[in-house]
Amino acid sequence: MTSTQQINRRSFVVGTAAAAGGGLALSVGFPFAGPQVVRAQDGSPEINAWVVIRPDDTVVIRVARSEMGQGTLTGLAQLVAEELECDWSKVTTEYPTPGQSVARKRVWGDFSTGGSRGIRNSHLYVRQGGAIARTMLLQAAANEWKAPVSELSVANSVITHTASGRKTTYGKVAEAAAKLEAPKEVPLKDPKDWKIAGKSVKRLDTADKVVGKQVYGADLKLPGMLTATIKDCPVTGGKVKSFDAAKVASMKGVKKVVQVGDTGVAVVADTFWQAKTALDALPIVWDEGDNKKVSSESIAQWLKEGLDAPEGFVGNENGDAKGAIAKAAKKIEAVYSYPFQNHAPMEPMNATALYTPEKCEVWCPTQNGEAAFAAAVAAAELPASKVDVYKINLGGGFGRRGAFHDYVRQAVLIAKQMPGTPVKLLWTREEDMLHGRYHPVMQAKLVGAFDADNNLTAIHMRLSGQSILANVFPQNLQNGKDPLTFQGLMSGNGEHSFGYTIPNLLIDHSMRNPHILPGFWRGVNINQNCVFFECFMDELAHAAGQDPLEFRRKFLGNHPRNLGVLNAVAEKVGWGKPAPQGIYRGLAQMRSFGSFVAAAAEVSVEGNGNRVKVHRIVAATDPGYVVNPAQVERQIAGSFVYGLSAAFMQECTVKDGRMVEENFDTYDSMRIAQMPKVESIVMPTGGNDPWGGVGEPTICVAAPAVLNAYFAATGKRLRTLPLKNEKILLV
Amino acid sequence: MQEEENLMARLTVNGKSHDIDIDPDTPLLWALRDHVGLTGTKYGCGIAQCGACTVHIDGEAVRSCSLPVSAVEGKAITTIEGLAQNGTLHKVQKAWIEHDVPQCGYCQCGMIMAVAALLKEKPKPTDADIDNTITNICRCGTFQQVREAIHMAAQSA
Description:
The complex is a heterodimer. Helices cover 28% and strands 24% of the residues of chain A. By secondary structure, chain A is α+β, with helices and mostly antiparallel strands. In chain A, the strands form eight sheets. In chain A, strands 12-13-10-20-17-18-19 form a seven-stranded mixed β-sheet. In chain A, helix 2 packs parallel to helix 4 (123-145). The N and C termini of chain A lie far apart (63 Å). Chain B has two domains: 8-82, Roll (Ubiquitin-like (UB roll)); 91-155, [2Fe-2S]-binding domain (DNA polymerase, domain 1). In chain B, a hairpin with a 2-residue loop joins strand 3 and strand 4.
């Protein structure tokens, strides 16, 4: 029976990649169980989809979202464990597979781990999962003792009936609990009463990472596996014209040279180095198509024209900004630009596929198991029931592995040409740099108007550049408009609401979509929007002759949580008090992904303004609720590495239709010597608004806080990123 | 086919000898990962920029992606898998766990190897020593925790 083989293969995965939660085997109706009990591979009963309890009291918590360093795995487990009232020291986790999810009517909900949504969009139902399981376990004990459940209490997986002095554990009642009908809904704890959630417990996934045991996708090994590496046409839109496989066929270790769709060629060999050596030697002729005429300069010119184009999609408007600007006593105008950037996760793209006409299985690092599954199903051209995806931990994601599973598609297309042989496709860093899903390119022209009394009367912000949705999810456009372009600038009180009240405001977008494929790059459109707007607010403050903090505060009266984080960083950094000799300060704030974030930077500048040292960052975040403060602090600190690397060092330049930078020698990333001291203020204010995210929001304030401090130090505005193009270095 | 050619290399990895059939130009990184079967040493860039592939050669931190196997025969190679001694974690590994340093963790094996070599050279490194020596890339950006954990490890026995 094929299911036996499947289970065996899954057992193998569990054995090789246990820490990665590499696969979870389920069998429904195990021989010695009642008909309703779903069992984990080892026979332990599932209390519900989120909780399996073993006889030794180990609690296995299912996590549908992906762990890529951001701590979601631990945070989601904390939330389930909090409601479950289990012994935290006995918690372990595993990933369900998307195939199992499909078979069980999406019992685990969304797998997508992007948009800083991992915890905030699933906390209610995973907490319910824990609470329902607790209720069933208590009921099982009550049934056994013939005592009212109301007389039972539970702590650390131990159930107590005080009246009779009886005690039992979750492991002992799990079998009986699994047979009970689940209550529909159970009241959740008030976060004020949390004991596990809300605390800085250690991550669950550290031990293997420090000894080299953590299995990432790139590390996966299957019996009989071969390794492939690929070159896709370096110009997007181009195709393979021809390649001469005979030239490399006899090289050591080479097993096969295959075309991958219309656009790629891969070499399959015993080892990666053999595959790479042969691929480098393989003559390939590309048909690069019309896009080869495009360059960064031609794109920049096209975007520049959009800054003054008559029509634009309106993202946020109140009053009559154009009218107020026409009547202005004083006008301030500035043009900013933001480049293409690659996610460059440390682990290059990879996926392993094993294809037979009966079954296609894929092992891959992914931020969205269900999207990877869909890509595998489409490439395999098999029914969904004959496909599954096993998630392997990611060596970084940052948005690259969320909506885009080109590497999964390629792996399956290669494996289809070698049925029965598992093939691991591993990209080179160069391939990763040439085939990113790039941070969209954008320019902005901002015009501010003052009346004769030096009051700000209007701002018009015109964005000109690329829409991610137009390329990736065109069905989400609204009459052609990409609402996501206005992240952090939107009207209303949504997760990306604009954080000021300006008397007359117009923010609009001239959409211009080059052929370079855009993607969701950690922070997405808040990165450029916050640079544009928060640097311009500084320009306006300067033009008005006012302190940047005091100037901002005038427009924050209706935005208490924006004001709250801004005040917090200003106070802690010592704004308004003398800075140490040679140190200058800058501020920025924004709402993004539901959280309110602000930063204050302290910098010094040397060498005619060409060498910038960021000494200290004070960063505040108010996500509403916090599940693990220590992990939030790590996300905040790391955000300054990602954000300042981007601001100072990173641009993917287009020449002859393709990307120029191919590795970290030309696409640099911050090192420890450049790391400022980051002081985090985690200040959740609770309330009834939806929870905010953590992984992305803070990135947006990194660059503008530093750019504003640079202005304070030098009197010079830097409006074009990255700063390396102006020979300004982070030291 | 040129299988007659002797392509064997003898590598001493974590105290064990391995005879492997490999082209001598192959970088040590791939010998370790694909021939010896130790995947804790990571591929990040292939051009000695990122440090994810850092191992110790005769006790010194070296980026193994740009070093051919022919250059390391007869030398003592230590990988992350061999850093713990007699089942006891190295003090850097302990500090990393204690301080919850890794995020995605992909670069951390190389980071730990670089730090272990630094502490051997300078048992109580200053921040400047750290800045000058530890040049590994971490895209998650856990540098603040790395620095704190280095000082923590230096304080431990």
